[in-house]
Amino acid sequence: MKTNRWLYVVAAGSGILVWVLVSMLSGRREAWDSEAYYQIGLPALCVVSAVLGYFEPDRPWRWGAIPLAAQAVTMFAMQGLGNLWPLGLIVNGVLAVPPILTSKFGAFLRMRKNMSGSPSH
Questions:
Q1: CA dihedral of 19, 69, 7, 61, whole degrees rounded to 10
Q2: What is the DSSP string of 28-78?
Q3: From CA 86, how far away is CA 36, in angstroms rounded?
Q4: Which of 36, 108, 115, 121 is found 20 to 30 A from 85 (Cα to Cα)?
Q5: pTM of the model
Q6: Rounded CA gap, 14 and 68, in Å?
Q7: Measuring CA to CA, which residue among 2, 4, 109 is closest to residue 51?
Q8: Could you tell me if 40 and 83 are in contact, meaning their C-beta atoms sit under 8 angstroms apart?
Q9: What is d(CA 49, CA 45) in angstroms, rounded to the nearest whole number?
Q10: pLDDT in tens, 34-79
C-alpha cells in the first residue's frame, strides 16, 4: 500500500501558502478580500488540485477540499474565530468547489490515460 502523505502535505501547504502570501502582499486581513485571491490564488489552487488528482485519482475531491480546509484553519489561527466564523466556513465551502472540480478533472485525465493503454505512473 503506497503512502500519500506528501500529497496531503502539498495540498495543505498550497492552501496555507496562498492564504498567507495573498494576505501579506495585498495587506488584507483575509486573503479572499483581495482581488489577487480570485485572480491568482484560487486558480493556483485549482492547478495544484488537478495535478494531485492526476497523481492520485482515488477520491480526488480531497485534493480540492484539503487546501481550503487548511486555509480555514490558518484564518482562524491568525485571527481567532470571531462572531462570523459560521459564514466564513460557508464561504470557504463554496470556494472549495472549483478546486474540487479541477481535482476530479485531473483524476479523469489519469483514468482516461490508463484506459487508453498508456503506461501509468
A1: -120
A2: -SSGGGSHHIIIIIHHHHHHHHHHHHHH--SSTHHHHHHHHHHHHHHHHHH
A3: 24
A4: 36
A5: 0.86
A6: 9
A7: 109
A8: no
A9: 6
A10: 999 999 999 999 999 999 999 999 999 999 999 999 999 999 888 8
